[in-house]
Amino acid sequence: MNSLISSPLLPGAHLRVDGVSLAFADRRVLTDVSFVVSAGERVGIIGENGSGKSTLLRIIAGLLPPDSGAVTVNATAGLTPSIGLLHQDAPFTPGDSIAQALESAVAPARDVLAAMDRHAAQMAADPDDHDAAARYAQTLDDAERLEAWDVDARIAAMLAGLGLDDLPTDRLTSEISGGQRARLSLAWLLLSAPDVLLLDEPTNHLDDHATAYLRSILLAWRGPVLFASHDRAFLDETVTSLIDLDPAPVPHAVAGPLTVDGPGSGIGITRFTGSYSDYLAARNQARIRWETQYRDEQAELKRLRASVRDNHVVGHENWKPRTEVRGAAKFYSDRNAAVVSRRVNDARSRLDDLEQRQIRRPPAGLRFGGLTAGLELRNRREFSGPVLAASEVAVSGRLESVSLTVSATEKWLVTGPNGSGKSTLLEVLAGQLDPTGGSVNAPAGLRIGMLSQDVDLPDPFERGDQRSVRQAYQDLLGAELAEQAPLSRFGLIAGRDENRPLLALSLGQQRRLALAVLLADPPDVLLLDEPTNHLSLLLVTELEAAIPGYPGTVVVASHDRWLRRNWTGQRFEMAADGDSPV
Fold first, then answer.
1. Nearest-angstrom CA–CA distance, 292 and 297
2. CATH number at residue 467
3. Which residues make Cβ contacts (< 8 Å) with residue 58, sequence separation at least 6?
4. What is the per-residue pLDDT across 330-355, written as a single tens digit (0 to 9) for each?
5. What does the DSSP 8-state code read for residue 228?
6. Cα separation of 199 and 86, whole Å?
7. 485 within a domain of the structure (yes/no)
8. 104 and 152 assigned to the same domain
9. 382 Cβ contact list (under 8 Å, min separation 6)
10. Which of 289, 384, 553, 581 lies 20 to 30 Å from 496 when distance is taken between CA atoms?
11. Strand, helix or coil at 403?
């Protein structure tokens, strides 16, 4: 796919991060992070939820000061380089129309063309005005760099590429859906064409067409690109290298005791050149080497400590010289002392050296406990035949007429382009949204649970920021159920994070908590809306593997190509103007 969008690269521009560290009041997040992203490189950031991916991007964008270290963008053109970040906050106000939002993105290009017209008029009025001629030449260079003459074509291509071309441009941005607003934010950033492009989960609200369009833009981007993403297929097809923020086998003396930060805190980074698929194999091998080295070092430390403690004589401790001559006894005694001293000193020297350079113990990490985590479906009834029957279901303005029948224990994948109504269908099936047409029938007593795209963890006691993760879990389940199904059982939230304020967690960690709340009392029908969004790559893989074994019914709505590629259950593909079951 050809793209009309490219970056106005400052020649030689590259991003440099030197020794960046940041700690919050309750934990260390980033420690001594250093790397370089050169012009034309596309680097993906990966790591567990809460490892600091979004934090690192905000530091690079200048939105969050680090405790130490520096971020620089070097260029040779003598111009001030720009850094653009796609994150949760939209770059336009709710009172802006779509047209106004887009115009604010291309304002520099429009301004350059207006300046060229002014300088041209000055030159026409006074051909001898050399200053006007110089200013005109400079603005001409700027216009070429900004591709100012192609602005309207770029806007049209961007709207079509990201699936926004059917929206009236006079509509207020506050009146469009959350997914459309996210895509408009992405369009704004790409049209503004920063020299350094930073993206936080750029494919969360993109269908196949929009994802392919974004990929074509990034492959042609001439400046440094750094992005955090859960999208495994997108990583595979786009990155030139990967940066992993998860713990690496650094020396114990550098890492400090695990009790300070817990097993999730990394020191520095691990960088890998290649695709995500290649990295999976390399990471597994690296983990094996780390565990082997740690085991061997601990065995050697144990041996050396015993040697320092026990080696005080040479040979058998009851051995006596054959001669009774006093001088001979003293000779052998002195020789024994010298040999023992050398041996003990040598062992102590090697012990001190190994204690200083021994690598950190490999952290256990989080391992997903499964969709039931060993829990029984409480008050479970055995259902047979259809458990959800949607007949001609429609929601005005959101979902065209859809019919779907889901039977007990079946696993369904709902797919379709943006605007086809996947999320709306799940909300109707969950009983969270009343249809304006059609009906949904379910047997009496059927228990339905849904993981929504948006994290919603209501606080009945209005404790706000002061509510801890553990308190939130208990609030949402009740003390009795929270005790029967402890949060630690699911392997979704690290123990060190359970006492942290809920709102101090990353979005991915908050979504993990919402999943744990849902699974603490496993429903008969489990609805998952874009379950791979914001979750770590490892958890996504484990979650997918657990779906076939769920004892109830599962319906997943997803645009994730990796998940779709490996799906073995039933499929239901929705079109933008209706439905077409597959």
1. 9
2. 3.40.50.300
3. 64, 85, 87
4. 555 555 666 666 766 777 788 788 77
5. E
6. 5
7. yes
8. yes
9. none
10. 289
11. strand
